[in-house]
Specification:
Blueprint lengths: L8 E6 L8 E7 L2 E7 L12 H4 L15 E4 L2 E4 L2 H19 L4 E5 L5 H15 L4 E3 L6 H11 L16 E5 L3 H4 L1 H14 L2 E6 L4 H5 L2 E4 L5 H14 L5 H7 E5 L9 H4 L6 E3 L1 H7 L5 H8 L3 H12 L5 E5 L1 H4 L4 H15 L8 E4 L6 H7 L15 H11 L14 H10 L4 E5 L3 H4 L3 H8 L5 E6 L11 E4 L8 E4 L4 E5 L12 H11 L13 H12 L10 H6 L3 E2 L2 E2 L2 E2 L28 E4 L16 E6 L15 H6 L5 E3 L1 H6 L7 E6 L2 E9 L9 E5 L28 E6 L1
Parallel strand pairs: 6-7, 6-15, 8-9, 8-13, 9-10, 11-23, 13-14, 15-16, 16-17, 24-28, 25-27
Antiparallel strand pairs: 1-2, 2-3, 4-5, 4-17, 11-12, 18-19, 19-20, 21-22, 24-29, 26-27, 26-29
The chain binds iron/sulfur cluster.
């Protein structure tokens, strides 16, 4: 029997899942969220939804939802009251700080934290306790995008917006399976092809549903995107396609490494600083990257390199570059981001409608909660911990002595788990993320977390491999079971109200943190009233961004609109930053102003090709690449509880090239053994069903907690962003 429809109470929210940030309408009936549809008024998705969005409310009602706090006693979890669980957490934190110092406690959150969650976490740990041990899983997915922006422009987040899609003539997708990862946004590209005949070029190491829909699919060998991007710059210069007046007025040329003031120079031996070079020197450097030379490294024909370069170089074509995990999860992720900006800066195709280098995010609030709130070790909501003025500014708003805020970053994510392993960190609170599925070289970090003398708190909505390592598990309220905001990939802050009650004793992560803060003695700083705490927290958060470059829209505006882009100045959102026609923060009296840099100029970087951290060899002859699938959200902890999505994609698999599979006599469904220097796993094969990787390469999705691909991935990371390279390591492939 079909359920009744038609009488639902529909309320608006941003989608719970990916970074596209579609506006949805949630249908509520008898206190339960029972339906989802796209919000036709949302400028993001214009009424569309993808398969995950439509089924998102079902993620709240899985049978094994956590509803009571659990405490581990003699190896078993026993139910306890919320009060006792919070008392225990606060007393363990006090004890750890007393015995081992404040840098022995830490919090690890997520781009799925709401803005208030991340804000109170940062205020409690950085402002009150006085440790910079605050990190979020976004380090694993978009830290390279951040350092790319900072090195090229001195300020984070895309200059353009989704409206660029309506103006661009050509879309170049750099290692970006948009059809599966950002499906609604990809459908906007396809719409434009129907309406205006735009071109879609997919540049990747495997064919996917994206390349199948693209006008042209170009495959490259892993890591060689560095060389191809340089070859495109070579072509632009040698064909006279440089926008000389733009480059002369608005760009500098730099070489050298930089760790962008993370304050870790000694630790990571990044002693060389950026150094200005001339255009002539840059041109000379590019001579190593002629299309013919790069063809030999990359497997991309010189003809295809010239084909891509010609679109970027054509003054009559507006080009949008889109990327996400391919260039970010890269042992030279920062460089890859710089290189894509180089192409746009050389041609002046930037910050005007349709000319847009656009780095997408994966999570609903990776931008909002991690990059804007600043839940990374070196960040403050406005600025960085290393800057005295930024510390003073934050301390004043947080009502804490400035000496409380430590002037040095501590650990980025991989280092934070290494510190837990070593015992330098003794207490870790993990909220709304699942590191025991997502950490690379997983065994090392799981063993470290399970050592004697570590105390782990996990706040989540379902049992996961991460709750398995917890000493205390707190049940969390999910999405519209509480009030909050997310910030999507185009700088759009979106509000949602509480629509239904969370189950049992589940409470929001914000509430849990505020309650522990009060128990630690910070009642003055955590003065928020329970019935209006989101309002008070957001109003306080906005004070950190009270300037023309960052200002966020007030809550009453967010409540009335399907989100609002920052900078929100004089009652208006800013769609294109750094362009004086659109951005009120431009103050140099010229057409463009890259005000994140002291001299207002963006940087074109000299970034060489460098081989990957681990390359295939005789023993491990294949590349291993990992990623997501359209049916599942990240580690699958929510979407695997949605029956229709679980049935559509019940388990992980290894995707093999048909030629490789034939050589090894492997067919779809056969079990395959993958072996790396870290270990072994077995998975069923998928030959040519969902795509074809380049020769000698296999792909495995990471959503399946029963087939943990991260047991065997490598934990090397970009030395600037510290983001791990999940896309490349060496693996041996055999029929099991
Ligand atoms: Fe949600 Fe992303 Fe799908 Fe939009 S594209 S409905 S934000 S999962």
């Amino acid at each position: 029997q079909l359920p009744k429809g038609g009488n639902l109470d529909w309320k608006k929210a941003p989608c719970r899942f990916c970074g596209v940030g579609c506006g949805v309408m949630v249908g509520v009936e008898n206190g339960k969220a029972v339906a989802v549809k796209g919000d036709p008024k949302s400028p993001v998705n214009k009424g569309l939804c993808c398969v995950k969005g439509y089924h998102s409310v079902m993620a709240m009602y899985g049978k094994d939802r956590l509803t009571k706090p659990l405490v581990k006693k003699n190896g078993k979890y026993v139910e306890t009251s919320m009060k006792e669980a919070l008392d225990l957490i606060a007393s363990k934190m006090k004890e750890t700080i007393k015995d081992y110092g404040k840098d022995a406690v830490s919090i690890y959150g997520s781009g799925q934290w709401t803005i208030p969650d991340g804000y109170v976490a940062s205020k409690l740990f950085k402002g009150c306790i006085g440790t910079n041990n605050v990190e979020a899983n976004a380090r694993l997915c978009m830290a390279s995008a951040v350092t790319g922006f900072l090195t090229s422009f001195g300020i984070d987040e895309p200059m353009g917006c989704y409206e660029d899609i309506d103006h661009a003539d050509v879309f170049v997708l750099w290692g970006n399976n948009m059809a599966e990862m950002h499906p609604v946004l990809f459908s906007r590209l396809l719409d434009q092809r129907l309406k205006r005949g735009v071109k879609i070029i997919d540049f990747a190491t495997r064919t996917t549903r994206t390349s199948m829909a693209a006008d042209k699919s170009i495959l490259f060998l892993p890591q060689t995107d560095l060389a191809v991007a340089n070859a495109i710059c070579y072509e632009i210069i040698n064909n006279g396609w440089v926008n000389t007046s733009f480059v002369e007025k608005h760009c500098n040329f730099n070489k050298g490494l930089t760790n962008m003031g993370y304050g870790l120079e000694d630790k990571y031996k990044f002693k060389d600083k950026p150094e200005k070079i001339s255009f002539k020197e840059y041109k000379k450097f590019l001579e190593d990257y002629t299309p013919e030379k790069v063809e030999k490294i990359s497997g991309v024909s010189a003809k295809d390199i010239k084909y891509m370069a010609a679109y970027y170089g054509d003054p009559n074509k507006k080009v949008m570059s889109l990327w996400c995990m391919g260039p970010n999860q890269h042992s030279r992720g920062t460089w890859m981001n710089n290189l894509i900006y180089n192409i746009h800066l050389l041609t002046g195709k930037i910050s005007t409608p349709g000319n847009s280098p656009f780095s997408l995010t994966g999570q609903p609030s990776a931008c909002g909660t991690v990059r804007e709130v600043g839940t990374l070790t070196h960040k403050l909501p406005h600025g960085v911990v290393m800057n005295k003025k930024h510390r003073e500014f934050a301390a004043k708003i947080w009502d804490v002595p400035v000496e409380n805020i430590a002037p040095k970053p501590t650990y980025h994510t991989v280092e934070m788990f290494r510190a837990l392993d070593r015992g330098d960190i003794r207490f870790m609170w993990i909220q709304v993320t699942n590191p025991m599925v997502t950490m690379p070289k997983l065994k090392r970090y799981r063993d470290g977390a399970e050592k004697e003398g570590r105390f782990i708190v996990v706040s989540d909505i379902y049992p996961t491999p991460t709750t398995d390592i917890a000493d205390v598990i707190l049940p969390s309220a999910m999405w519209v079971e509480r009030e909050g905001m997310y910030g999507n990939s185009e700088r759009r802050t979106q509000y949602f109200e509480q629509m239904v009650q969370p189950p049992g004793e589940a409470m929001s992560d914000t509430w849990q943190l505020v309650e522990v803060a009060k128990r630690l003695g910070y009642e003055k700083q955590f003065y928020y009233k329970e019935d209006s705490h989101i309002e008070e927290i957001y109003a306080e958060y906005r004070k950190h961004h009270d300037n023309k470059k960052h200002n966020m829209a007030p809550l009453e505006v967010l409540k009335e609109n399907p989100g609002m882009q920052w900078p929100y100045v004089e009652g208006k959102p800013t769609k294109w930053r750094f362009n004086s026609k659109y951005d009120p923060a431009c103050s140099n009296g010229e057409d463009f102003h890259f005000y994140g840099k002291p001299d207002g100029k963006a940087v074109i970087w000299q970034r060489p090709y460098e081989p990957a951290a681990e390359e295939p060899d005789a023993e491990y002859p294949y590349w291993l690449n990992t990623g997501r699938v359209v049916e599942h959200w990240h580690t699958g902890s929510m979407t695997r509880r949605i029956p229709v999505l679980h049935r559509a994609m019940p388990h992980s698999y290894v995707e093999l090239n048909p030629d490789d599979a034939k050589r090894m006599q492997i067919k779809t469904g056969d079990m395959v053994k993958l072996t790396t220097r870290r270990g072994q796993i077995k998975l069923p094969a998928s030959v040519n069903e969902r795509g074809v990787p380049a020769p000698m390469q296999v792909f495995v999705p990471f959503f399946d907690e029963n087939m943990l691909i991260n047991e065997i991935t490598l934990d090397s990371f970009c030395p600037i962003s510290k983001e791990p390279d999940y896309k490349k390591c060496a693996v041996n492939v055999e029929k099991a």
